[in-house]
Amino acid sequence: MARTLLHPRTAAALRRAAGALALVALTAPALAGCGGADDSLALVGGEKIDATAIDRDPLAVLPSGAVMLGYLDAAALFTSSLGGEVNQIITSLLPLGPESNFVPARDVVKIHGGLYAMQGADFCAVMQGNFDVDAIRRAADARTVTVIGAPLVKTRYADNDLFTAGNVGFVVLTPHTILTGNETGMRRALDRLRSGKLERSVPAWTVDLIGTRGASFAVAGDLSSQPAVASAAGQLPFLAGLQYVRIIGNFQPPGVNFAGALTYADPQSAASGAVALRNLEQIAKIASLLSSWGFGYGSVPPMQVAQRESDVAFTVPLGEGIVRMLLRTAAETARSVALLR
Known about the structure:
- The chain has helices at residues 8-27, 51-56, 74-78, 83-93, 104-107, 133-141, 183-194, 204-210, 227-232, 267-279, 281-293, 320-339; strands spanning 68-72, 108-116, 122-129, 153-157, 160-165, 168-174, 177-181, 217-222, 242-250, 255-264, 304-308, 311-319.
- By secondary structure, it is an alpha+beta fold.
- It has two domains: 8-31 and 213-339, no CATH class; 51-194, Protein Transport Mog1p, Chain A (3-Layer(aba) Sandwich), CATH 3.40.1000.
- Strand 9 and strand 10 form a beta hairpin.
- The termini are far apart.
């Protein structure tokens, strides 16, 4: 096995995370039932919002059928050296600025979000923290030009004020919870709230993953019915036969540490996926590209990979240099999507 390049404490943390992920992957049913809650929410039709129910359970706001579900401890990320790059991503998804008394590093604490295939590639997220509702409304009424270069426009949908700037928008649900996303994703979420009940429609195993102790972020994906995944396997071989994705991580040295578990259709597909991961083709391509651009990101540590039946567990640390570049690319992409019409 390749010798690890991690700090001993980081390596131990990753081993614990990988063990937790492997336990989830091997004990959770492939399609677990939805977690539920009976919290009533009187939202529309002129009635009041139960703000405490929304603030207490942000996952209940997200629509069902997510292809990928994610969680981010934004407060932890902003205390790391990567906060500046993440600030750019958040302001693209939640296009507020000083005119709305909004500072991402100060006001955003955690984020839950999902990617969907509703009418294309759709997304919505629930950001939690502290938001100046009056300042946001004043900025919208003034049609203030936002940090992404598009004016903030207010419309109404499902008895809520929906604010948009370019191709993204948001709804202030409470002073501590904001719904954001593209129009289709947000409307699906608001339609759920319009029914008058607030209950989760995400699989229980994704909730368990997000709740992993010590994880600063988590990603859970159900790719079992996504034909695009199979078509992408030609360029990324580890995607062939992939059905479920579980990834957690933290922002400790050397930058970002990932631990994941991939569930395949059968042991044969898992074996092929493990080989593809060990080859690190996708990371090698990124490393080659970085070298051609002259980035001094340092070496990419080896990925640790282990297969058990139809599951493949892995851990990999990425240094700050390469993570910073990836976050900048993500910020540029998010801004482009926000301005796309």
